[in-house]
């Protein structure tokens, strides 16, 4: 059993920053990208963490993505911004875009942005929480390569298309919904493939539309668009609400790609080297648009406390609210180090050797 290793968070961020700099990124972009990647692992979201560093390395080497790319402003108003990323690194650009949206929201009360022609940007919750820390409701979405199979279908027609919403409370707590609109993300399938594990039944279907447990075959079929893919949130059919997950995924395509004039649906495709060009959406709404922020956060405290004190089901220890597990794991990571699987550690060691960089000790 792979128990993994815990690596000092700052050391891990610096290692990834050094890799990105060796790949030609300006230091600020390299630092932002590393911080966002490591933040996923620090929260226990290995599917979106440093295990993806090799994809960025391949993409940059092949010129599919690159650093120091200036986005084109397609449209801008006091409350909105639409950008063409021109193939820029998705993480640093997204962080800078959310900063601009927060600045607009401070003046106007609310602001929104959409971006087309970008790259993978890590975990959506990172950006929604940026707004929440400024006494705002933060919203973030992205479309992805077509990996999700619609209700009653067997061909991928939409991405994992995550949605994130963050709302602050007192005591440095916040509610953060950060979820894919498919049953799981491709990153989770990659984790199972790396670990040689069989997929749980109900996550995905093969080229015939039958439920599959073969992670490697599924990833290969999705990459070459042979059919099959991830089931929408709720699973197959309508009995458990799969059609609702399907509709949410399409809504994300609308908010990210249709608003920016980007690529959507089955036309968003991965290559062997890197992820597809994708579209993002960001929003920030000041709390005082609705109520006194302190009063609103006090009610958030009450709500979160009520959820935490709800009686757990038999055999379960406690009830959580959205984002709580991740925030607790982040505190553990800050104190004890970020937990990485041994396979990811070896992968990073090999990447480091390529650039004469030493991976940090446990």
How would you explain this protein's 3D organization?
The protein is α+β, with helices and mostly antiparallel strands. The chain has one domain: Ribosomal Protein S8, Chain: A, domain 1 (2-Layer Sandwich), CATH 3.30.1370. Helices cover 41% and strands 16% of the residues. It has eleven helices and eleven strands. Strands 2-3-4-10-5-6-7 form a seven-stranded mixed β-sheet, with helices on both faces. Strands 1-11 form a two-stranded antiparallel sheet. Helix 4 links the parallel strand 3 (80-84) and strand 4. Helix 2 (27-42) packs across helix 4 (90-108). The relative contact order is 0.18.
Main attributes of the structure:
single chain; 362 residues; alpha+beta; Ribosomal Protein S8, Chain: A, domain 1; 7-stranded mixed β-sheet; 11 helices; globular
